[in-house]
Write a structure and sequence with these properties.
It is built from 1 helix and 21 strands. With 401 residues, the chain is mainly β.
Amino acid sequence: MQKIVRALFCLLWLTPVLASAQIDPVARDLIQFGYNGAFEGHQPIAAYAFYYHNQPDFLRTNLTLRLAVAPVYLDSELGFNHLLGPNTDLGIGVAGGGFADDYNEIHEGKLLPAESFEGDSAELSASIYHLFNPQDEIPLNLILRGTGHYSFFDRNDDTAPDFELPQDHGDFSVRTGLRFGGVEPTLFPALAMELSVWYEGHLRSSHGSYGFNNDFNLNEQSHLFWTEAALAYTLPQSQQSFYVRLTAGTSIDADRFSAYRLGGFLPLSSEFPLSLPGYFYQEISAKQFVLLNGNYLLPLDKTKDWALDANFGSAYVDYLPGEGQPGNWLSGVGGGILYRSPSERWRVMASYGYGIDAIRSHGRGASSIGFLLQVDLGKFHSKDFKATPPSRWGGWTRMFN
């Protein structure tokens, strides 16, 4: 019973931390839900469910409040528009909650519960957002963020008694990046373009070995470098749309807590979702990678309420030491049916994914199902495409799992 209760809790709280890349100028009230389930094998819970609220002109005209709320997790930021200059904003963030830093050990397609454990967290951050070209249609932003994050670890029901947990520790990180364009925090945006390059460095207050025989290591420092190019477009007449993303990253001294983790199809799980349809969520741990994703929507009826979705992911991976498996190329394909209400208040999709190179007990190949839901509690929107400039809001973040 305890396992079932915890699973239900996790299903409700797994939500992205909104480390936004600019202060969002658009009022939003969204409910987001996503789920991936495997046909074979025991997988970690792969789901998010949260309410996202963004309120410009909060109390004063130069304040913006952003909240992501889930039953046992909260992420928030108060943005001060133009506080540091006419084109420079400041954001102060508070986040934290239960199960936020859970870690699931997956090796060669198999979840290892004895080496997995729970983690709670608390976090404070300060961010500077500078817009270089306020007169241009496509914005170029500089982002600089400092974060203090503290992790508290504990065993779950399946953690082995003789498995030594990593030490509770503080993680002090700096992220900086240049972003040209941006992608709105919505399911299948109609129009978006982004070119960006990023660095993130971590310094931990405690470090050292853990595990059964001190075979895992928590590094004192980790450094991540990545870049992304993305394009989404919708044809005005037919309403056919596509979304293509190319992401590449490398690292120095990455460990299990800072490695790039690929797998699953949860498009709003992260500011940079590393999707591989058909795989477990975060099945692959990499110290460097190149990943190409594509998504295509084809309307099926005259009113454009129903659409057929096709998606794929293909990656070349250099595995984290200790997490390797045969073959460096990993690919997956998927498809589904999307329904959009005439007002665009509801978007819901049921999908199927096949991990072509996923390792399972029978060999290569794995199937999964998915479910995505977006409810817009704000204004009703027309489904007709309008070629407006990409939003100056830049995105989401990473999924806590």
